[in-house]
Design goal:
Tetracycline Repressor, domain 2; metal-binding (chains A, B); transport (chains A, B); homodimer; elongated; CBS-domain; MgtE N-terminal fold; 66% helix; 6% strand; mainly alpha; three-stranded mixed β-sheet
Chain lengths: 452, 452
């Protein structure tokens, strides 16, 4: 196997070369690695060696590294660079990545970097900077290949040769008219197979799928996944071609969205990173815990209402966590299924009503099975048939209501145009705690005469 | 905008053409759509019209549709086709998709389909059929472009023209020696820029990254995402080139893995589908609920041990769900952070110890804040300082232990080579229920003299 960054000996050797200023030897070994591995090595270095390396590499070489650095780590790096070098590095990056980086910096730093930068690059970046986060505009790049319908295949190939070093992808060619309207698309595969004197107009597909610049990035991801595209053109409302979104950016979007849904289900408000300190972790989780603490107080005061029943039949308390726990679990199951379905767009309009009916039936089946089981267990354990019946019947009613609640909340949120993933697990769990206690003590109070 | 499948009028028109046997008119409109849209239309049709369509389309045209059908829907379609047609359709598909479909069918059906199929395709498929699920081998395709080092650029371009219609991607060319060992890689981009008489050996990169055929598909996905590849070669243990994995398959893998993690966090054992009936849904969720029911009985019998304390101080019962709920929530938060970190490979070896220390500190901060808050609230509500202190102190200890448990369980599972995502939310929640009750009643019993 080749030497690489996961080899500690190789890493030390490289670091020594950098520290000793053996520029040629360092460059030879370093630039031989894939940019992703260069980045992994670079991020492990102490600041003083990083400062050396900025002087060993060209802005273009540094740009390749920057494109692989996680956004949360970007700020200190840009700050420690010479501003002119930083501006040149950012100018060399793909515009979409450059914009991502600038979005992490303070406004005045951005302004001064754009001022140092050459006008062409600065203008391209400025245009992308004002698109809203998580839209197609914010993840597109402007380095695409556009050609005219009258071009011949051989001219197009010549043009591609010239554009290849700069373009984000050369595997799709976008065909535009004189006013820059998107009129067609052509894959490099089609171009290669074609005869050299054929016109692009006769070769291209005029059924070109595109997304609007304001489209949600999650919808763009779904489209690229469904249609197996390597890139998708982005247009404005008059169908002018503005940029393209490539599949490698979509992989990052999917990762981000999956992490986001996952964190929300667990009630972690913001995506946490392994490097976060305990204080930052606590700050991200505390808001949820405090909200849940107050919701928990509601549960407590609800039980408080039934203190009299509890004093008469202390054994009732034994089953509180079991009931609340089962309600929370079944609600989270229903929630996860509904959120996942909503986010992959699997439901139609009718589908939501169907889903609710199915969840009601699912809750009833699960409730009946668990209820029967629990009745028998409690009867044999406590030798009290009525207590068994109470607990069993309570769990049945609870499971039906809790399952419905788990599905209903995300559907309602979706209707109100709120991201259904916000209806996190802990929230549903606490709601269902309350529901279960209400049902349990309600039934216990009603049938108290059989229990004492 | 172009007419498409989301237009109900267009859909009805197309269906009428198919039903009336107006083959040419139907083919004209139908084949004009993207295969994904063809599939969406096809899947909405009743069986009798589907049976017509099989006779209107060539196996190749039908194969394009089949590649977009979800695997769970495949079985009835293959069964309703004429077996010879089905074999021809599957032979026309990319081998990786063909294998996915055959894996859904009964063994005897697979054998008979492979017998009808021409030998070349049948052999290719048979070779892939025995790779284990979720490995690189199971998602790779064998339709790649391989060339020799001695080839010139112009010969390579000629070869590509011939291979383009069949190959899964022509954007990477893999260079092999006479024994089919993978020795280099070349992108079509590099080929296009190069002069026509240059040898491939002088142009290719010999630092070709590859994955072993037994590699986990999640690791392959991570590699393609990190390195921004469009495809990755798959080799055996002697570095023979066996196949390639393309980025479009990786999008599906990422989706599948994200759904899987998400479902497990919510305690849904298997990924559910919107079309599942209530009975199937219930069957998928019940195993979890029953396990949790028995774990809940543990909680109940634990409280039963403290029945005496409860009879003396019934007010203790009021705070059970609050404590259990908070323990469950904080555990799920810690769990989600740890599982996500483990699955994206963010932790090193040292990282896990660091993570545990951080989680302990996070638990302590959150516990102190929530504990102080709760002490004050309970004191003012119940006008009982000792009760407030008991509940507040209990929540503090509980949050520390529950947070640690949430992080520890997935780390232990990872050490034991079990997928950490199996440590689902409900499981951790129930463990933490038990921990919280033990702490709460333990403290209550110890300090009973201050409470009665």
């Amino acid at each position: 196997m080749e030497k690489n960054v996961s080899d500690a000996f190789f890493r030390d050797e490289l670091q020594t070369l950098a520290a000793n200023g053996q520029i040629d030897a360092f460059r030879g070994k370093f630039l031989d690695m894939h940019p992703y591995d260069q980045t992994a090595f670079f991020m492990e270095l102490p600041e003083d060696i990083r400062l050396h390396i900025y002087t060993y590499l060209s802005p273009e070489e540094m740009a390749a590294i920057m494109e692989h650095i996680e956004l949360d780590d970007i700020k200190p790096l840009v700050t420690e660079m010479d501003p002119r070098f930083a501006a040149m590095v950012i100018a060399e990056m793909a515009t979409d990545d450059a914009v991502d980086i600038l979005n992490e910096l303070r406004k005045d730093v951005v302004v001064s970097l754009l001022t140092i930068m050459d006008d062409k690059n600065a203008d391209e970046i400025k245009e992308l900077l004002h698109y809203e986060e998580k839209t197609a505009g914010s993840i597109m790049t402007t380095e695409f290949v556009e050609i005219y319908q009258a071009t011949t295949v051989s001219d197009a190939m010549q043009y591609l040769k010239a554009e290849a070093p700069e373009a984000e992808t050369i595997y799709y060619l976008y065909v535009v008219d004189a006013d820059k309207h998107l009129v067609g698309v052509l894959s490099l595969r089609d171009l290669i197979i074609a005869d050299s004197d054929v016109k692009i107009a006769d070769l291209m597909s005029d059924k070109v799928l595109s997304v609007s610049v304001a489209e949600d990035q999650e919808d763009v991801a779904r489209m690229i996944r469904d249609y197996d595209f390597l890139a998708l053109p982005v247009v404005d409302f008059q169908n002018h071609l503005l940029g393209i979104i490539t599949v490698d950016d979509i992989l990052d979007v999917m990762d981000e969205e999956a992490s986001d849904d996952y964190s929300k289900l667990a009630g972690v408000s913001d995506v946490e990173r392994p490097k976060d300190s305990a204080l930052i972790s606590a700050k991200k989780r505390l808001p949820w815990l405090i909200i849940l603490l107050f919701l928990g107080m509601l549960t407590a005061s609800l039980i408080g209402q039934f203190e009299e029943a509890l004093e008469q039949v202390a054994v009732l308390a034994i089953f509180i966590p079991l009931l609340a726990g089962m309600a929370g679990n079944t609600g989270t199951q229903a929630l996860a299924v509904a959120v996942r379905g909503l986010s992959t767009g699997d439901y139609g309009k009718q589908g939501k009503l169907k889903l609710m009916l199915r969840e009601a039936a699912t809750g009833l089946i699960n409730g009946a099975v668990c209820g029967a089981l629990l009745t028998v267990i409690v009867y044999f354990w406590k030798n009290d048939f009525y207590l068994g019946l109470l607990v069993g019947f309570s769990i049945m009613v609870t499971l039906v209501v809790a399952t419905l609640a788990g599905a209903l909340v995300p559907i309602l949120m979706d209707k109100l145009n709120i991201d259904p993933a916000v209806a996190s697990g802990p929230f549903i769990t606490t709601i269902n705690d309350i529901i279960s206690i209400f049902i349990y003590f309600g039934l216990a109070t009603a049938f108290m005469q059989y229990l004492v």
